[in-house]
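Side project, low priority. Logging it here so it doesn't get lost.
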Amino acid sequence: MIIDLVGAEFLARHEVDPRRDEAWVEGMAGQVEATKVLLSQLPSAPIEFTYRERTLRTTLDRSRFEQASRDLLTRTRLVTRLVAEEQAKVPWSEIDKVLLVGGSTRMPMVRQMLLEATGKEPDDSLDPDQVVAHGAALYARLLASQVEVRETGSTGERGRLSEIEVIDVNSHSLGVVVLDRKTGKRLNHVLIPKNSPLPIAASKVFALPKEGQRQVRVTVLEGEAPEAEANIVVGECRVRDLPEGLPSLAPIQVRLSYGSSGKVNVMALDMTSGSVAQADLEPGRGMTDDEIAREAEFVGKLVIR
């Protein structure tokens, strides 16, 4: 946003648009971040840079920056309402705290918006840049306490921690590719909506698009877009050697299950012949086991002073 503001001002003064230069955009990243921090604390911030031997010295007002960011703030407000009221179905009166997460929540306009939207004063008792790390550490402690209680039967603080229930949910919807008979387009048919408590399973019976098919490929997608191509392909499975002469609209049952560990199982059943295929998938897989072990060894050697 700041890049666009100062780039447009530079263009107006010097008839050169530095925003077309990727090297300039990347080089301005640090200065832009510093300006955003200043605007969270002060009503204005100076900014100066040189491009092709031409210099721009200007002052960026918070009000101007907030106006340019208004559409992003509106989107944030809509997402906040969507998550709490429509997906979690929890009224704000039952929510104890609104905890600020991420550096952008330092902006006064974000805090004011959250106060107006929720009726609650945002909680900034933790560093917004460290909240996710704090949450991960607490979750790890809860898991460790549960394991210790199961293995040793210990009570006290560990016993109380082990009684806390943490409900895992999927961050993105899972669906399968289907063919729209009218348009011929490939669509994403969601079976497991995002924010569903895990573990969960869902199934649906589909129809073969044409007669005489000898195999069926089930492609699993992760994402919310209605168009299949706009989502991430998690994996697929195939049911082969279907009986000859299957009519159009022959039923095929597809079942998706999503475990708390993040593993997905897809099963496809030809309800005419009983032929079945299944596969285990891991959507959005991050580090490998070797990478996790290497990082754990590195972290174990750190000394906190």
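Brief comment: The chain has four domains: 2-68, 70-118, 131-162, 174-281.
Revisit when time allows.
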